[in-house]
Each structure stands twice: as structure tokens, then as C-alpha cells.
Amino acid sequence: MPELPEVETVCRSLRQTVVGRTITAVEVRLPKIVHRPEAEQFCQLLKQQNIADVARRGKYIIIKLEAKQALVVHLRMTGKLLYESCEIKPQKHTHVILSLDNGYDLRYDDTRQFGTMDLVPENQLQQLPGLNALGLEPLENSFTLEAFSNILKGKHQKAKSFLLDQRNIAGIGNIYADEILFQARIHPEDTTSLITAPEDVEGLWFAIRDRLCQAVDHGGSSIRDYVDSFGQAGRFQNYHKVYGRAGQPCITCGSMIESIKISGRSTCFCPNCQPRRVSAG
DNA sequence: AGTCAAACCTGGGCGC
DNA sequence: TGCGCCCAGGTTTGAC
Predict the structure, then answer these.
(1) Beta-carbon neighbour count of residue A150 at 10 Å?
(2) How far apart, in whole angstroms, are the C-alpha atoms of residue A210 and residue A180?
(3) 3-state SS record for A26-69
(4) The pTM is what?
(5) Distance between the two ends of chain A, CA-based, in angstroms?
(6) 8 Å CB contact between A269 and A181
(7) pLDDT tens string A118-167
(8) Residue A76 CA distance to nucleotide B7 C1' (Å)
């Protein structure tokens, strides 16, 4: 479910609610969600800590604590961070509960149990596996056309694989990869080495920012599970042009949207609007 | 270096 | 109603 726009929406909602609060109690109901430290120590270390800030890097949520520790949460497919009254009964898939000092809880809920939590000293964030290998942050000012061109240049991946590879650009998942490639009129199986024309490179760079920004503005996309920390669904699914539209006519040209598999991921595209590039010769 | 399949899990949707 | 199968927004690992 959650890609950059959804994770950003969760972070924004958490900033309104949990920053400044104190964690009064911690309950880990499914220990495997907590990677480090071991669950018992995790609870001990979090208790009585004050929440200083909430940040995002790629698809990671970083809850910063005043004692210079950071709680790093990855939602994977079905994870949710919910801000709920402690009087509401925890659900079947509520795995971690942080009780706050105002009668509310910050709860981690995850049907498929793929998500992770790590509590690390803030100065060791850069060593956390996964977080330490992330590429450019696409909504930051540092994501310039030049920086983007430089990473594109050295790669020989399929365009779709390039966008999904978190070491290149952080935060893009299956939905937005398809939407970005449609806007940039690039075939998902074209290798990045074919994307050399300046207008193509700039078009792709622009599409990345544009699709992600638009999605953030609409509170992300809710396909099945995603909600923000208030339990609110996103609205950007209403603006998807190719994702989930296989067999339906293209919004731009009326051709049938096709669905193929690229490294196991379903990929929707318009064969007319996104023609294959052919290498010279 | 790049690609792919499998693994981690539960639940929804489909065909029979 | 129920069973079996396939599918799902992510990441890591190991094999080719």
C-alpha cells in the first residue's frame, strides 16, 4: 500500500498529534515486528520518552525522540500507524501499542505482518540496513535535473525497474512507477540506456515530481488498505490513469491499457502513448 | 550488473 | 457455502 505520498501523508498527520507527547507505556503483541533491539528492551527504552519530531526518508517513517533515539517504522504492504483513543478496542492485527500521556495511543496495525520497527540512537540512523542505501529524495530541492540525469546515465535497467529501485530514487512503488511512466510517455520495458534525449530525461524527471506531488496533495492513494493515522483514506486513486485500468480505454487516446509482469510486479501501460524506443541501427 | 523467483503473511475475489 | 487457487501497494536474498 504505502509509497512515498502515503507515507508522507501519515507523517503529516502524526506531526499534528504525537509531537510533544510522552510515551507512557509500550505493548508489543507481535515481537517479530520489532527488529531491534529485542522487544523487552524496546519497551524499556521507549517508556517515558518524549516525541520530538516525525520525519520521512523514502518510505521510512522516523519518529524522533528527545533522548536522541529514533523509532524507524516501515509499513511495507499493509502497515498502518493509527492515532486512536485508548478506549477503542485494539483490532485483530494491532501488533504494537504506544500509550501516550493524553489518553490516546499510537498503534501499529499490519494485516500481513511484513512491516518493521527499529529503535536506534539517532546518530546511528545512517547505518540502519535499508535506510542506509536509499537514493535521491524526489521531493527535496536536491532532486535536480542534473542529479537525476547523473544516476540515469550509469544504469541499464528497465525503466520500471529503475524507478522501483530504492537505491536510485527513494519512495516510488508500483502504483506511482506506472503513473510516472505514463505521464513521461515511456514504455516500462525500455532500458534506461534508451532514455537519452534531453526532452525525455527532463520529461521523466518532471513526471516523478509532478505525480508524487499531486498524490501528496490528494492524501495519497487508497487501493485496499491504506489510511492515514486518523483512519482517513486517500483520494488520488480517483486520478490514476493507468494503474489498475488494464483492459480499459486509455484516457488520452482510447487504446486498450495493457498489463504485463516486470520482475513479478504487475505493470499497466498504454501501448500507443508509451511506444517502445528502438535503438538506432 | 541486471533479472528473476521465492520468501515473509493474511485476506479478498474468483471459478467450480 | 465452501474449497482451492490466484492476486495484492514492499523488500531482501540467492541463483543465473
Answers:
(1) 11
(2) 8
(3) EEECCHHHEEECCHHHHHHHHCCCEEEEEEEECCEEEEEECCCE
(4) 0.97
(5) 42
(6) yes
(7) 999 999 999 999 999 999 999 999 999 999 999 999 899 999 999 999 99
(8) 14
Chain C: nucleotides under 7 Å from a protein CB? Answer: 7-13
The DSSP bridge pattern shows strands A258-262 and A116-121 to be unpaired
Strand-pairing partners, residue A118, are A36, A72
Å from the A266 CA to the B12 C1': 17
A193 in contact with nucleic chain B (CB within 7 A): no
Q: Which nt is closest to the CA of A113, judged by C1'?
A: B9
The answer to whether the CB of A245 falls within 8 A of the CB of A258 is: no
Interatomic CA–C1' length for residue A239 and nucleotide B5, angstroms: 32
Q: Please identify every residue of A annotated as catalytic.
A: 2-3, 59, 265
